[in-house]
Amino acid sequence: MSFRGRREALLLLAVILLATGSAPGCLMRRRIIARKGAKPDQKLLAADKQALLQRLLDRYQSIDSFLATVDMAPSLGSADKGQITEYKDVRAYILFRRPSHIRIIGLYPVVRNKAFDMTSDGREFRLYIPSKNRFVLGSNQVIAPSPNKLENLRPQHFLEALMVGPVDVDHEKTLLQNLTDEEKADYILEVVEPAHNGDLHLKRQIWFDRLNLHIGRQLIFDASGDILTDARYREWRVYDRLLFPQEIEIIRPKDEYSVQIRVVKLEMNKLLDDARFSLQRPEGVDLKVLGPSASEAGVPAHDSPGTSAK
Fold it and tell me: pLDDT for 153-202, tens place per residue?
């Protein structure tokens, strides 16, 4: 370009800059980003991976036990199969004691008769369904889903969602994503571990809302990458000086059920003895054992696995 050409280009650029400087509205528009749940002009919080790991550990260690009264709305079925049955206004009581004891007692709407009672010590679970006159024993993990969706409920699924566990830094690795756009702003902590074939297995994703750094979501995956649990948390409140979400949604797509939980009352770090987690089969109730052997499930030898006994 000749000297004259360069001078004309510079003059044109100067005219454009002067025009936009005196009338910015002609060529640009400023928008205010309004995120759901954010206050006007609320700033996003920043944290690095180590700070989020510590936050996760501190919250977990601060809760030794709790006794919760909740309203539950279970949904049984699958969107893939085109049929979902919803139950409204189920009152329930949830008891937890570290490290792995949990008991959940559900009551039917209106009449408040017992719908189910289930407990787990972290290895095995017990489930009593009075309406079916059935008592179920088995492993915490669902090996083969039952046609009776209530039998797919596991206390451990609730425990993993309610008490988001810390990362085992000695055996697990973590990655941190910053997913921030105009609608949401989240840090996503990915927890991975080596698989048997040498690959990496994505175990969990823990989402932290950058408006307050509260946990907004936790995804738990199986070895093939399918979602086992999709837990979502809303409306974090202070109970006995400790933070806990008032609303929790637990979705178990492979087990074909989901549960929406709203906390009505929550008592933190209360003394809960072993008797509060003891659930015995009532006399005359049918027994169903889910597992390889009756002895491993802790039932008498005359109660054969997978059968009913009076």
Answer: 778 889 999 999 999 999 999 999 999 988 889 999 999 998 777 788 99
Q: Contact, 116 vs 103, CB < 8 A? A: no
For residue 296, what pLDDT band results from cuts at 50, 70 and 90?
Answer: very low
- Calpha distance 69→171 (Å, rounded): 36
Cis status of the peptide bond prior to 99, with omega within 30 of 0: yes
What's the mean pLDDT when you consider all of the chain? 83
Number of alpha carbons in the 13 Å side-chain half-sphere of residue 43: 3
Residue among 162, 207, 154 at smallest CA distance from 185: 207
Which amino acid appears at position 160 of this protein?
E
- Decide: helix, strand or coil at residue 79: coil
Q: Which of 224, 223, 257 is nearest to 145 (CA)?
A: 257
**Looking at the chain, how many residues does it have?**
310
How many other CB atoms are found less than 10 A from the CB of residue 196? 7
- Give bridge partners of residue 138 from the DSSP assignment: 125, 290
Q: Quote the CA–CA distance of 98 and 226 in Å, as a whole number.
A: 28
Residue type, 15: V
Tokens describing residue 247: 């609303």
Contact in structure between 143 and 290 (CB atoms under 8 Å): yes
Q: How many CB atoms lie within 10 A of CB 267?
A: 13
